[in-house]
Design a protein that fits this description.
With about 260 residues, the protein is mainly α. It has helices at about 5-25, 55-60, 75-95, 100-120, 125-145, 150-170, 180-195, 195-220, 230-260. Helix 4 (about 100-120) crosses helix 9, helix 6 (about 150-170) packs antiparallel against helix 7 and helix 8 (about 195-220) crosses helix 9 (about 230-260). The two termini are about 35 Å apart.
Amino acid sequence: MTPLVVLCLLLGLAIGSFLNVVIWRVPRGESIVRPPSACPRCHEPIRPRDNVPVLSWLLLRGRCRHCGEPISARYPLVELLTAVVFALMALRFGYSAALPAYLYLGAIGVALAFIDLDTKRLPDKLTLPSYAVALVLLAVPAVVEGAWGSWLRALLGGLALGAFYFILWFVYPSGMGFGDVKFAGVLGIYLGWLSWATVAVGAFLGFLLGGVVGVLLLVTRRATRKTGIPFGPFMIVGALLAVLWGQPAIDWYAGFVLGT
């Protein structure tokens, strides 16, 4: 692994630890800054040595040091997942001025996916500011690399994907939440920066993944046709897959169709 990948991997572990706080507190309207993290049972503050991503959970064997309350395995899972996403983004973009923008996408994507799984909603406190963050962060490579065409396409991509989701929601409002509509524009910005084809691939993969999982849940009788399944995680995973591997897939498909 290159130094950049290692750095992003470690950064992802640290950010993942913070995302656990975001995932728990934002849906409850609590501050993500204060009070410090504490055991929900004995309310003892978590010491710095017990707050090292993944490692502390392993050393404590998944239990609070003070009262023995089990600590969910989801905490290290979020940390590891964020680290893997960050490392993949580093491999994808390398020493590019666009890398910080896509690291933010990875972080906000992980947080919102887990929040949606828990609460079946995507909080405005996270989705709406992400528009400004995305456009500002992508303005950096636009300035450094003179890629204003990509920045304009990103803006149009956000408008296009947001409008597409709005039409779907307007036609069939019970099919998805309006939070999905509001976050679609953010994903469109990041996909649009890369290409219009990536926007199409990201949107398609979201619906494909949602459809496959929905059918599996029906077949295994873990859900019915009336069961509400959060769509946010599928949108996010589809977009991340398109960012990371969409262009090779597009090139392969074009070569297959055109025979080149």
